[in-house]
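> @MW can you paste both from yesterday?
MW: sure, first one:
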Amino acid sequence: MVEIEAYAENSPPVITAEDLAQDHDREMERLAEAMRDLSAQEMMDLVHRRMSFFLCAPCYQAWIENPA
């Protein structure tokens, strides 16, 4: 079995003076609008995903040599 866990980048963002000068209310509205049609699962998938694959021995050998 192969298990893969992927996480979105979680290092602290670099905040500039330009970022601080933005209209934050408008930016929050833009983000909310962008997420409006996403399901809860789709939003969670943007930051974390876990998958399990049950592979036979030959498939596992092929995958482990070239996982991409």
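MW: second:
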Amino acid sequence: MLYGILPVLILLPILRFQDGQLAAQNSKGKPYAVIVGTVWGSDDHPVYGVTVKIRKATDKPNKVRWQLYSDHHGEFEQQLPAKEAEYVVWADLKGFKSPDGQPVHLVKEVTVHIYHDERQDIGLHLEH
């Protein structure tokens, strides 16, 4: 039994190190940044199926550069160019129905500053 657990204990720190590091290059070998986030409901539980939109802070408010959806864990992830820029992230709740049927709104959009090839973690909070 110990011999089955021993390789796992040896590899665990290595796997954790790799998991915690941002893969600094995409499939084409170019560095990138990434925004990773979670959509939280008013009950502080993650929310599935919310449309998440991202634009550069210098763009007009109605311009959307990236659109994605929160997964079953309420999470989303978007790769971005690895250069200094500021982005605005928000939840588009048009057509979204909460599980309890009550209308929800986004508490506030989130501004994210990227410097280079890094990961930024954020949360989008909804309330009734």
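> thanks! The CA atoms of residues 5 and 21 lie 25 Å apart.
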